[in-house]
Amino acid sequence: MATTKTDYHDVLSRRIEQLHTKKQQQEEGLKRSFDELTDSLNPLQIMKQSVHDMVTDRELKDDLIKIGLSLSVNFLIGKIWKRQTVRSYLSAAVAENISNTLINNGTASELVAGLATRATTLLLKSSS
Asked: Which of 14, 75, 88, 127, CA to CA, is 20 to 30 A from 54?
C-alpha cells in the first residue's frame, strides 16, 4: 500500500509540474498579446502604420501625382492668363486639355517617372 501512495504522489507531482509549466507558458503568451495590444493602441504607432500604409498604396501615389500635376498646370495656366490675349487664352486651353488627358489616362505618372529616371541618369553621368 505504501508503494501505491508513493506512485500516486509521483503522478500527482508530475501533473502539478506540467500544469505549472503550462500556466507559465500561457502567462507569457498573454503578456506578449497584451504588450502587442498596447503597442498597437499607441497613437505614435497608429500614425506610423497609417503613414506606412499611405506610402505603400499605389493608388494613393497615383492620385497625389495627378493632384500635383493638376496644380502645376493650373499655376502655369494662371501665369499665361495674366497676359489676357487670344493667343494666351488658346495656349491655356490647349495646355489644359492636353494635361487633363495625360493626367486622367495615367500617362503623366509614367512621364514623371521617366523624367526622374532620366534626370538621375544624367546626374550620375555628370558626377563621374
From this structure: 75
- 75 lies in the same domain as 20: no
Question: What whole-number distance in Å separates Cα of residue 124 and Cα of residue 128?
Answer: 6
Read off the DSSP letter of residue 41.
T
**Any residues with CB less than 8 A from the CB of 81 and at least 6 apart, and which?**
88, 89, 92
- Alpha carbon 60 to its chain centroid, in Å, reads 9
pTM of the model: 0.38
Find the domain containing 98 and state its range: 58-127
Question: How does pLDDT run across 42-68, given as a tens digit for each residue?
Answer: 888 778 787 777 777 777 777 777 777
Q: What is the pLDDT of residue 115?
A: 62
* CA–CA separation, 33 and 46 (whole Å): 17
Stretch 3-26: mean pLDDT: 90
